[in-house]
Amino acid sequence: MGRIKLIALDLDGTLLNKHSAVSDENRKAIAQARAQGVTVIVATGREMQSAMPYWRDLELESPLVTANGSEVWTSSGELHKRHTLDGTIIKELHDISLEEGCSFWGYTTEGMITADNWSGITDESVWLKFGYFSKDPDLLQRVRTKAEKAASVEITNSHPSNIEINPAGISKASGILEVCGMYGLEMSQVMAVGDSLNDKAMLLAAGMGVAMGNAQDEVKRLAQAVTGSNLEDGVAQAIRRYVLEAAD
């Protein structure tokens, strides 16, 4: 692993604590890394509207990877690249939710979609991500099996109780690769930190993939290292150990 020049951080369950806030220690470590010339970006499953407040709060002045890589935004907040799900795929995925009685949700370029505002969907709606939610693992497995047969898509999760679906080939890793292109960096110069299966691709592709202490077991197994939980300033621990101390 060469010197880390870019840090990609997931939000929920990673950078954010149980109050959906950035701890003082995490904030301090991010500032220290930036002071050493390291670029810090957010790579999240959230859509731009809900990710932007954290980007502004941290004054990152760096690109954002949102909706699991379906959108990449420049440091000035301009759209750099967008990948979408075809409307016919969305119809099939929505039909599965009705067949199985499973709650669904998703992101269009207009914001979050649920059963409550599904009636507002039109042929012109631009879909970034579709998802399901259930605390019944058997139901989720049936839904996943049907979704895999319905279309060629990327299927992950951001929590054991949900399924997240993105366009084929699109992930946080593909989004970070776009960011690396902006800065003339290689993925070997990236440290990625996350906790869920939608972080899997970026942890595997990065030069240093770090799983949170609260990460799903599969994520911990594939990561190169495991840091503290999101209640223990795990992001700060990872930055100090693998970026700041490694640079000394």
TrEMBL record:
One of its GO terms (molecular function) is hydrolase activity. CDD domains: HAD_Pase (cd07516). Gene3D superfamilies: 3.30.1240.10, HAD superfamily/HAD-like. Its EC number is 3.1.3.-. The keyword Hydrolase applies. InterPro entries: HAD-like_sf, HAD-SF_hydro_IIB, HAD_sf. The keyword Electron transport does not apply. Keywords: Hydrolase. This is Phosphatase.
